[in-house]
């Protein structure tokens, strides 16, 4: 007769979130030893993680935290299904990973995965819960935002799911309402850069080449090409540069103008969206 009770099965399932059959089998194999059963279940899950490596993890959530050292951290933790994404265990894991990443001052996923967490590392803790849940988990994005003050905006695309879009704005000034409005604008408009000077030269050169080809194909006079190209490049910057975008709530003014009117200066920002770029990654 196995040296464990129904209460032991229940306790282990609550601890790890495993199925009834797998939990019972692990306890039988461990002869009732709870610690050994945990190791058996995690080893089984780890083997499953390897098999799931090529799966797409396009669901998940965004979490953010403002620190007390002039920085804020925002990250995207992914899983395979929205059912898992809205589960308590996954949400708690995301919050714990955020705390660890912020404490370590992580600025990218690699630094965050190496950060200490619960006596191990973030990478090991993510793998452990993924093994138990039976889905692929991935810490896809981690960003650190700098500033004197911060606004955090989380956008819910469904009332049943955790935040799918998150924005952190670092700014100087005291007008919190305007800062929050700018954060909402960023969530909607998805700028890539704060200022024109931040756009990589290779990106500008590539866009200029495309614009020149299009303009010539339209039969525009050669003498007029430089002016037309520069005008179209300006429109390109208005699409990707935050300070040059038309403010969503007042399109007659740019974001920079709105900020200046409120005595603000945006110094940094980050926007993350769950699953962004997953298909492109899979095609490479």
Automatic annotation (TrEMBL):
Annotated localization: Cytoplasm
Main subcellular localisation: cytoplasm
GO terms for MF: translation elongation factor activity
Entry-linked SUPFAM superfamilies: Elongation factor Ts (EF-Ts), dimerisation domain, UBA-like
The keyword Cytoplasm belongs to this UniProt entry's keyword annotation: yes
Annotated function: Associates with the EF-Tu.GDP complex and induces the exchange of GDP to GTP. It remains bound to the aminoacyl-tRNA.EF-Tu.GTP complex up to the GTP hydrolysis stage on the ribosome.
Protein name (database record): Elongation factor Ts
Organism: Gulosibacter bifidus
Recorded name of the encoding gene: tsf
């Amino acid at each position: 007769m196995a040296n464990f009770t129904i209460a032991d099965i229940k306790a282990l399932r609550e601890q790890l979130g495993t199925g009834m059959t797998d939990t019972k089998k692990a306890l039988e194999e461990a002869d009732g030893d709870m610690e050994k059963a945990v190791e058996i279940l995690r080893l089984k899950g780890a083997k499953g993680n390897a098999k799931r490596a090529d799966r797409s993890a396009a669901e998940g959530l965004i979490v953010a935290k403002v620190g007390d050292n002039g920085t804020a951290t925002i990250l995207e933790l992914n899983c395979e299904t929205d059912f898992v994404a809205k589960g308590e265990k996954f949400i708690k894991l995301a919050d714990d990973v955020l705390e660890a990443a912020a404490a370590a001052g992580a600025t990218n996923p690699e630094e965050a995965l190496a950060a200490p967490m619960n006596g191990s590392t973030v990478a090991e803790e993510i793998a452990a819960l993924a093994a138990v849940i039976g889905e692929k988990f991935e810490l896809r994005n981690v960003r650190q935002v700098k500033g004197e003050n911060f606004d955090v905006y989380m956008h819910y695309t469904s009332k049943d799911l955790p935040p799918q879009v998150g924005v952190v704005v670092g700014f100087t000034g005291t007008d919190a309402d305007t800062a929050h409005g700018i954060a909402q604008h960023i969530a909607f408009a998805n700028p890539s850069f704060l200022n024109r000077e931040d756009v990589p030269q290779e990106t500008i050169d590539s866009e200029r080449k495309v614009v020149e080809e299009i303009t010539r194909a339209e039969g525009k006079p050669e003498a007029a090409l430089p002016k037309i190209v520069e005008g179209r490049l300006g429109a390109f910057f208005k699409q990707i540069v935050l300070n040059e975008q038309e403010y969503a709530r007042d399109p007659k003014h740019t974001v920079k103008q709105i900020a200046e009117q409120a005595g603000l200066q945006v110094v940094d920002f980050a926007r993350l969206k769950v699953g962004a770029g997953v298909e492109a990654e899979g095609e490479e």
